[in-house]
Every structure is written in C-alpha cells, then in structure tokens.
C-alpha cells in the first residue's frame, strides 16, 4: 500500500493531495494534515473531513474539497482541538452547516469551558519547540455545533471506521482505524516527522516520533496510546504531521517507538514529565 499524488498544488502552503488508501486522502497545509474520508465518485456527497488545519486555511480546505467531492461533508471529526487542527473549524462549520464530533474529554476545549495548558518549550529540542509559548492555546466555543462521539466507538456516517481513545497529547485525543485494510489516522498520537524541528518540518524528512512534545501533557498516557496503536498492526498510517507511512517501514518504526517510548521519547525533565504519573500512581 503506497500513497499516490492526485493533484499538484503550487507553492509550499498547499501541498499535493495524497491518496493514502482507498477513500482516504491527506492534504497538508504548511505543517499539518487534514484528511478527507470518502470515495471520489461522481455525484457522491458521502464524505467526512477529519481535522480543520491552521487558522486562515478554511478557503484552501474548502477549495480542495470542492475539487474532490460533491457538496458538503456529512460531518467534521476532530482528533483533538489544538490550534493547528481546528484553525479553520469555525469558518468551515458555518460554511457547511454540519455537525462537529470530538471525544467527550475534548469538549471542554471546544465549548468555551477551558483553555489548553501552557506549552513546554524545554522539551523536544528545535525551534518549533522553543517558539511554542507563542502558539495559541485558547479553547473554542462552538456551542451546539459540537457533539460527543458515539460511546460505542463508531464514527458517524462512516460505519467502516471506528475511533480509539488515544490520550496523552490531549485528554480527549482520538485516532481512527479501519479494520478491513488496517488503515490508521493517528492524529498527533505519533508523527512521521520531528515536529519540534523547523528544518524537519520544512523538508518533511520522514522518520517516526512521538507526539509533538511541547504540547503533550501526559507522557504515560501518550506511551500507552502508542502501544495500543502498535498492537493494531496498521498497514498504513496518516499522521497529523508528516507524510503517510506504510508497510514494513511503518510496522518496524511503530514497534520501535512503542518499545522504547519510556527510555527514548519521554523527556528526562520538563513541565509535564510527572503529570501522568502523579495522576495514575
């Protein structure tokens, strides 16, 4: 299973639309990916948007969607609510007038109750990490437009997919999995680029890493989530940051990440290093 470039875009802001797997498409804007789930068949409006990118990217996401699908999506599903995954959410949800779904533990950051905890610029290394205190962390207030995902793990309007609670990066982080061909949309549970490094983000050098360290608030839960995803033995993974990874390379790198998470990925010190342990021990 390999990715396929479907459309070329000019410049580095909008990158080519990638077909990661049947009815699964990844579209990168600057440093973050959004996903379109659904078949590009003439006349179909049976599709979903997963995540909503950076602020001010709504017009580009909307333009790409119009090229690929008919009409508006059935819904928008969020892996989590960090600024780079919900930046165009208000614009798109009003434009399309569709429901938004997220894990119940993520809802406080989407209904005006809470802001995200401060970033930790001391972990991960690289300028993306050092600049992280400047990144927006204020929650949204989407009101009645946002709903909890079904408790049974099903994904609205997409019966072939299921959601999996993969906390650590945020309390209500989820990943999506399609059992029929073992395709995984991992969000920020792990990445295929060193997201803390500006150079790696610019070049998109592919290598597997844990969640973006500067925004990860529970390292024990993050490690457990990576292990849970590794146990699924995915054949293809689309991550929130980086390029899709598949096959033996994915299997080997995900297993290595899971087995060495505590010793190689968890920072030795930092703002949240003992947060998960304090809560769970």
From TrEMBL:
<dbReference type="Pfam" id="PF00753">
    <property type="entry name" value="Lactamase_B"/>
</dbReference>
<dbReference type="InterPro" id="IPR050855">
    <property type="entry name" value="NDM-1-like"/>
</dbReference>
<dbReference type="InterPro" id="IPR001279">
    <property type="entry name" value="Metallo-B-lactamas"/>
</dbReference>
<protein>
    <submittedName>
        <fullName>Glyoxylase-like metal-dependent hydrolase (Beta-lactamase superfamily II)</fullName>
    </submittedName>
</protein>
<dbReference type="InterPro" id="IPR036866">
    <property type="entry name" value="RibonucZ/Hydroxyglut_hydro"/>
</dbReference>
<feature type="domain" description="Metallo-beta-lactamase">
    <location>
        <begin position="31"/>
        <end position="241"/>
    </location>
</feature>
